[in-house]
Amino acid sequence: MAVKVGLVGLRGIGLQHVRAHKADELSDLVAVCDVVKERADKTAEEFGVKAYYTMQDMLREEPQLEMIDVTTGGYENGSWHYEPAMEAIEAGKAVLVEKPLSNDVYEAREMVKRANEKKVYLGCNLNHYFTPTAEKAKAYMDSGQIGELVYCLHKMGFNGGDQTYSPNKNSRWNGFPYAHLKAFLSHPFAVMRYFCGDVTHVQAFVNRPGVRRTASDVMLSTVSVNLRFANDCVGVLLSQRGDCNFGLGGWWSLEISGTRGAFCIENCIEKLTFWPSPGTGKAGSPEKMSGGSLDGPEVFNSGIADFGETFPRRIHAFLEDVTNKVPRESLRANGRDALAALEYTWAVMESYENGGAMVRPHPLPTIHGDPASTKD
Known about the structure:
Layout: E1 3-8, H1 12-23, E2 27-33, H2 37-47, E3 50-52, H3 55-61, E4 67-70, H4 82-90, E5 94-97, H5 105-118, E6 122-124, H6 132-142, E7 149-158, H7 179-184, H8 186-196, E8 199-207, H9 210-214, E9 222-229, E10 234-241, E11 252-258, E12 261-266, E13 271-276, E14 298-301, H10 310-323, H11 335-353
Helix pairs in contact: 1-10, 4-5, 5-11, 8-11
């Protein structure tokens, strides 16, 4: 049986979710909700579902709903997530929330805590690693072809420069210095954690270029973050919001290297390259001033150039997990995972405010597990 879904928030991202649900055999989209009546009515008519204008009405009139998809936006892209998500959690529904989980880490902690207390699924649309390229990269890791992790380099941003810049006068963005960090860093942090595990140390250098300063734009749009992971792998994250161009790897690139091999994903969903470590005949030699050379590479092109295809893939994974009744701690891209990305974001802001000091992120909630759902 398909999961009966209600969706709240019908701007651009919300409509992408609507289309994904309508195309997925695991989803039965029953109702949509938006505080703007015209928007709700138009979407409901187009997709053949019921329109609502408040969460309370939708939950009361559609008690059969099993899942609520929260795609509201708000200040810093996340200030309108908390209330509808908490209403859905209190109603005992499975909840998928757009990223970031919230624009306030304290609200996010409450959301994760309450979902655990109510024993309901809480997931987040951290869609950047629900891709064929990430799946193949993880297979390289799981088969031992990467070995012990050594470093992780991640670049993610929007190509641009001073000739394309214009101040963002949108009231949900204008005047918020941390808007880019809060709205955007959840994605790269989630990806890095997916491959490399929990982060134990954060050091950040944050700035904005002169063109923004001249325009009195307070958004801190460029950030370089040094990371240490619990497994002693080190990492660097570079993110910017249209202030420059990224070169090799495109607007999104992830390079991870270990003692047996390395891979690089380009443009998120498009391309993966794998390089095995060199044999003894090709290894570098400091004594001989030789950098060495590599075997390979193996190149995988997904054939997908549309980043938008990450949305239905991630939504389908959530529907699969709900349908299969996986243990809540096994839910892919769950609330705790989304909270981790926010904790690292808050550590970035703390480091910046303290002149680039090293910060230990706030600890994540302990995973207790449900004895009724464990199989081992």
